[in-house]
Specification:
This protein is globular. By secondary structure, it is of the alpha/beta class. The N and C termini lie far apart (44 Å). It has five helices and 15 strands. The protein folds into two domains: 142 residues, no CATH class; 70 residues, Beta Barrel (Barwin-like endoglucanases), CATH 2.40.40.20.
Amino acid sequence: MTASTIDRSVIEQLVRNAIRQSGGPASTPVAARGAANPPGWIDGKPNLRVSISARHCHLTDEHVEILFGAGSVLKPEKDLYQDGFYAAEQTVMVVGPRRRMLGSVRVLGPTRPFSQVELALTDSISLGIDAPVRHSGKIDGTPGCVLVGPAGSVQLTQGVIRAARHVHMNFADCDHYGVQNGDMMKLKIVSPDCSVTFEDVLVRADEAAKLEVHIDTDEGNACNLDTATEVTLKKGGCGCEKK
């Protein structure tokens, strides 16, 4: 398996394992299946969170040094909901064909074995890049771009995607919903005059994840997520819909 085809769920598990071994913020023992308080649960129940994943990029250690200077490392600015992951202080400019560009695209950490840019459809149109919908890490055959930082630039030959919607969950969450890693679910968001049901929500499961659905900016706007009054996550193809 090459670095460019490593699944994101594998990377996330490796990161969490490394953080626990180093005594970092995710070092609290993980509750076993059936335990009273798995990660993210409240009062013995899963606590579903739906988050908008705005455009961002992931970088390799090598690209961090090229873009921000020799010896540079990512500097955490804000912790993300998933333990061990953060929005870095650093941002980059993403440049597409004919010098179309997006400035100040946030870098997320920690670093990865390959660099990847995640956009919404409107972002990719603005850049003039035909970015395909892909699950994170599945970047073979995707378009590239130029990343520009204060110390240099990087030409990516591939790695620009529209990130497919997905849900992070731990194994207790999987048991609760009757799903496993790699299954598809559906998310219903009820909001005034903008209710939407999203199909094809990929399950990304590992022992330490908290229950959180990621949708992109366009999807969040389409359902007016900020005004949502109800969110429901169900197993895809369960036959529970009313005929």
